[in-house]
Structure formats: C-alpha cells, structure tokens
Amino acid sequence: MPSGEKQYSFVQKIWIAGGILALITILLLLIKATFSVLLLVLAAVMVATFFRGVSGFLHRKTGWNNKLCLTLSVASTFVLLGLFFWLMGAKVQEQMVKLSEILPSTIQNARSRINQSPMGQKILQQASSPETMDKAKGLLSTIFSSTFGILGDMYVILFIGIFFTVSPFQYKSGIVKLVPEAGKDKANDVLNKVGANLKKWLKGKLFAMLVVAVLTGIGLAVIGVPMWLVLALIAGLLNFIPNFGPLIAMVPAVLIALMQGPATAGMVAGLYILVQVLESNFITPVVQKKLVQVPPALIIIAQVLIAPLTGVWGIILATPLLVIVMVLVKQLYINRKYVG
Description:
Elements: H1 10-62, H2 66-114, H3 118-127, H4 130-143, H5 150-166, H6 168-177, H7 184-223, H8 228-238, H9 244-258, H10 262-287, H11 296-310, H12 312-316, H13 318-339
Helix pairs in contact: 1-2, 1-5, 1-7, 2-9, 6-7, 7-8, 7-10, 7-13, 8-9, 9-10
C-alpha cells in the first residue's frame, strides 16, 4: 500500500458504508417525491400545449398578432367552458343527483342477481372478504392519492400551465442552457420534437374524446338508458385515460342499465366495447398516424408501475410520459446509432 494513502479502520469503513447507503436512500426518496411534482409539471405542459395549439390555429386562420391570439385562446377556453356548464350544468347536475341516488340500489340489485348462481356466490364471498376489502382500500387509497390534494393539484397545474403558455421559449432556453455547448443544438432540436409530438398526441386525444362522448351519447339515447348525457360525458372525459378509463366509465352505465334488465345491460356493455374498438382501431390511428406509436402493452406496464408511486396522475399521464421517453430514446440513441 502506498505510504501516502490514508488507512481506515473497520469502524470507519462501517460508518462510510452506512453514510453512502443513507445518501442513496435519501436520493431515492427525493426522486420519488420529485417525480410526483414532475408529473404535475407535465400536466401543466399539456395545458400550455393546448392553449398554444389553439393560439397557433387562430393565428394561421386570421393572421392576427400572436399575443392577441394567445389571449383569445385562454379567454375563449374559459368562456366556452363556462357557457357549457351554464347551459348543460342544470341537466348534468340533475342527472348526477339521480345517478348518485340510483347507484346504491343498482349495486345491490346487481349483487342479488349475481348471488343467484353458485359461481356468483363464490365470487361475491371472495370479493367481500375482509382481506380482499383491506387490500382494495389500500390500493385505492394509493392510486387516488395526490400531491397537494385534487384541488391543490389542479390549481398548481393551471397556474404553472398559464406561465408556460405565456413564455414557453424562456423555459425551453433555460433547459438548453444546462446542456454543454456542444450539445445545445441537439437539445433544442429534441425539445422541439418532444413538443411537436405532445401537440399531435393531445390533438388526437381530444378529438377521440369528443367522438367517444358523441357516439356513446347517441347509443345510450337510442337504447333508452336514463341519464345518457352525464354517462356520455363521463365516457368522453375518462377516455383520456388509456385502458382503465373506458372500463371505469362502463361500470355505472351497465349498473344503471341493469335496472331495466339484463338484456339492456348487455346492449350497453356491447355499445361501450364497440365504441372503444372504433376509437382504438380507426379514430386514434387516423388522427395520430404521424405520431410516435406507443405499444398498448407498454402503456399498461407504465400505468401499473407508476400508479403505486404517484397515484392517479401516474395513470392519467402515463401515455404522454411514454411519448416523451420514446422521442428521447429515438433522438438520443436510435438515430445516433444508425448515423454512427
């Protein structure tokens, strides 16, 4: 051993190893906490992407000043939402009240129907066991947890989103400045591609949500299901969440249809499945044909992995997060590999 090298005793080595382990643990905990906040930032980026997209559309169609178009984008969005809830709010609120009144009795009716068969009795017995209930409560409390509470999260997302909307280039240039000089051009190009892909994905998703809400509403009205309007709105909104959203939206519709009989419930379930098949195989591929294709299984894996750590925002934002990751991998690894 060289004479200048410092020697450590066994106790000192233990303390050093313990310190390194503690530092790693603290860093992992910080990453976990920070990741939840970063998801809120991502949601704010999506809000800004929407506002900037509407602003760009107005600018292309009218030729007006960018600041005026941006102001109109934000203001018109809030005005249209206000008018929608003012015009439809009374009807939606009435149906929501009916839905909350009917659901408990509908669930009990469904339980009694399932309980009529031996297999159904076993399923209900297993599902209502204390162990299953405790696991379900723990899972739901984890999934539906949030960083600052739902209202707090929405305030943070909207507040940061408006700042991003007003001056996105300032924040983008700040990120680029963190990159070494040799990689600044590449970083700027990658950020532009990430923004473009997020914009395409969001545009396609909003269109798909609208189509799902319209098709579901028409189908439920034709079948004669009560409260079809609020059920269609729920289906459209929850379609933003891949895989799990449509299943969650189908549950109250099927339960309400059960009040009119198993045949009606079957038609409603078939309607929801048909709408999702159309959305998944025809609508989304057409409107997002130039977007980075995200494999459905990869979305489910991301949702399952992220949800226990970050709650509901992980489920909602798993797809745009995957879009960002895939763009980064393509631009920073795959393209460079083939160029090299």
